[in-house]
Structures are given as C-alpha cells and as structure tokens.
Amino acid sequence: xxxxxVGVDGGLDGAIALVAEGDPNKLIDYWDMPIFEHRRKxxxxxxxxxxSIKRLFDHVSMxxxxxxxxxxxxxxxxxxxxxxxxxxxPKQGVSSTFRTGEGFGLIKMLxxxxxxxxxxxxxxxxQKHEFKEVEGEDTKEQSTTKALELFPEIILTKPRNxxxxxxxxxxxxxxxxxxxxxxxxxxxxxxxxxxxxxxxHWND
Length: 204
Hints:
Strand content: 25-35%
Mean pLDDT: 85
CATH topology: Nucleotidyltransferase, domain 5
Oligomer: single chain
Distance between the termini: 19 Å
C-alpha cells in the first residue's frame, strides 16, 4: 500500500496538506487552518465603541474537514500525520503563547482521534532537509520557493478562505468579509514540505 502523510503547520496562519508517495511525491490536497474571527464591540471603558478582533481555532471544522477528506483515501493509502512542534517565539505575549500551545494540543487531539499515527517534528529538522539546495536565509522565502519547485500546482498568493466571522454586542450594517492575506502563504508551503519530509523519513 502506498504511503500518504498529513502535514500540519498548526498556527492560526497555518495549513494542512496531504502528500502521497510517488516519483515525485504528489500533492493530493491542501487547505488553510479553519479559524474563527471574533469581532466584539466594547460597551464600556475608554475604548467604548471600538471593535476588538480575536482569532481562534475552529477545531470542529478542523476535525470534520480532515475526516471527510481522509474517508476514501484510507482505502488506498497507509496514512500518518506529521505535526510541527509549536514553541513560543522571543518577545511573544502571554495570550499569543497560550494560543500557540492551545492550537498544538488541539491538533494532536484531532489527528489522534482520527486514528492516525502522529509524528511531532521540529521545524529545524524538516527545514534542514528540505532547504538543502535553496538559496537565502529567510525560511519563509525558502519554504515558498521549495514548495513551488516540488508542487507547481500549489497556490501561495490567494487570500485565505478559512475564516468564520462571529459578532458580539453589535450587528454590522454591512457584513464585511475578512480580507485574509494576499502575501505568500508560507503556512501552505510549510505543511506540504513537512509532509514531504515525513515521507522520506517514514520509519523515523
């Protein structure tokens, strides 16, 4: 049975990619991490009337989407998951650090509940392998460059389409869709390269 890896870059700007064994390896599918955008109007205090925006993981959608996509693939592939180990960054705030850990825990729970063997991989490990022949020092640029080389069909410049907007304390006169990012989406490239790395280190 051929092998397939679910690669997960687990940040709020992350993504999930399915890469199957082949010559070369084949990108089966990929999508952005499902999230909520919680927009809340402040009712008191010096910032009364201001709209605060908080982004949260949509773990229910995360589970349902992956379960649905793996439904038929399980018949054809031996499947494992590769999840990048999350860690706090220098000068990262307490709330941001908490959300990083929360997302990492949710993803581990998700893949385990789907019956997948989950391999936790440090970013430096897969990047050292995947970026060997890629010039430059910016890992985001190296990631998008390498992903486009291996998987020319991957789209890295479209705005995200994974945001569900939730309003609190007000109803907008006009619903505004989240603009998302229009820069290179390295979450998608990271997820695909992480899966590619795991395929070459299947028994590690």
